[in-house]
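Let's study today's protein:

:::
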Amino acid sequence: MNSDNQNSPHWSESDLISRLYGLEPAENRSAGHLAECGACAERWQALQLRRRSVVEMAPGTSDRLEERLRAQRQAVWARIEHPRQNLIWRMLPAAATALMIFAGVALHQTKPPAAPVQQASAVSDAQFFNEIASVVNQETPRAADPLQGLFDSTVAPAAVEAQ
């Protein structure tokens, strides 16, 4: 019956199309409705006429369709049995792979031998403590020494300009 509105006694387009294609449920209690209701019967007959006109409009289409499908099938089998690819095209992926492997081996560079690690000389605890104390007691860090040299120039700026 009407799937959009269960209270309506008329059949919907969906119900009519389902009946047209045989998809109507077997226990449909309102099958007699089409015989009783003029509006639904009219829509039902219009739908049937439209389907018939579409089917009859193209006579012989099934023969042409079968012939076309047969030709397609034969073409597919012919291509499967006799591929058109030359031997060169079939061997191209293998040749490209071999070339890439050869290039990789040819361009491979061995890792240079590692330089021997120099062992630090043993420093006594007293020397280590003295170095740390001298770093802590400095007014400026050692990294600032080059900058400090720019400002502690012993040459006067006028003398530099005169030269």
